[in-house]
Fold this protein.
Amino acid sequence: MNRRVRRWFFLICACAIFGLFVSAVRQMPTFGHYRGPYGDILNRETVYERHITDVVTAVNFDWRGIDTLGEESILFLSVIGTLVLLRKPSSEVNDSHDENDTADKRKGREIPLPSAATRVATLGLVGPLVVFGLYIVAHGHLTPGGGFQGGVILATAPLLVYLAGDLKSFKRIANHETVQIGEALGLLGFLILGLPGMIRGGAYLRNVLPLGTSGHVFSGGMIAPINVCTGVAVSAGLVAVTYVFLEHTLETRLRGRR
Amino acid sequence: MLVLQATILIFVAITATAVVFTRQPVRQVVGLSFYGIILGLLFFILQAPDVALSQITIGAVALPLMFMLSLAKIRRDAEERKRREESEHRREAA
Amino acid sequence: MSLLPYIVAVWLFLVGLYGIVTSRNFIHLVMCLAILQSSTYVFLLAVGYRIGAGPPVFANVPVGTPAVDPVVQALLLTDIVVEATVVALLLSFAVQVHRNTATLDPEKVVELEG
């Protein structure tokens, strides 16, 4: 199919989709007038039944916890796929040692260290960022946030170290075994936390911990531990992915620095 | 409130169109980052703080970062291939 | 106004699809896919929205305050994070294609293989 035919074919189909979609949407409740019962039931009952003030987190990790488990395994599998696809074959690792004229080492292309201001600002931000990420993970059942968002925030902390030009520390953090183990343990922890409910004769992922007072950090039963597991899996996965994308650049820059 | 929502919705549509019609990937990444922030803003206004939080961290930071890194990787691969071909040429000439 | 969010959603879908259909670069294509995916975000949030209602978080407000639908928000929340890793997987495919065929153009890749 040549390009012009394809474009015309697309235009016709797009008009059809647009027409069908608009005629379908006209039958729906108008924007701003949500009337489905499920959201209202959840909004009414969650605080009483689960002692969790953030209903979105409750839906994610309790009401439809198995769904989230599925989503997390998609995340896990795509991280593994990226690592497998981008990992350097061992022959290339040996090859790259004797290429002395790499672009970054050529004269006039030396990469300067970041300025002192950048270094101070970025390295100074690492600590607050980690604390903020942990806060978002730990308070997922009380305020907006949770394992997914907090995990992403935590994963950006090593990148700040990279931006500060501290390449060796970045490599030590991001290439550490704990990142790969953490990725696996996060998912495994989620899987295992579902089991006690079954052992007690209930459904998978059923709550077995005391619910506590709603509004306190230690409340909501199983949600907080599951949140922590998700946070570990998400942050470790993103750190592993960014490291594998940066690996080659990092190696040449580290060799150029020496 | 409705006016604000309508403005941001139209802004989202315009930014998305601009991102799609930018054919140069490096410029497009910057556009995508901007689009991520606008989308996060829309989610805030539609009363979804949880979603907005994850959209801002992912859409404005993590996604553009991955695109940038893979563009850098592709450019490096291209440079390496060129160098290898040049050295092969030299070997053949000799 | 009542149709605008839905029309924006279908516009994002069609624009993203147009980008995918006419793309000459795999990186560009993945970015268009991200745009296409964001149409579902706008659509789902529009479905669950209620004028004048607050977010479904009852940390500082009593239970019973009007709130928007939490179910669609929970759907989006996980989807956005999973999107990031799926995009990473697609990008690593693009890197591999470039490594093996020295091109990022979908049409040329097909020519090479056919």
Notes: DSSP finds eleven helices and no strands in chain A.
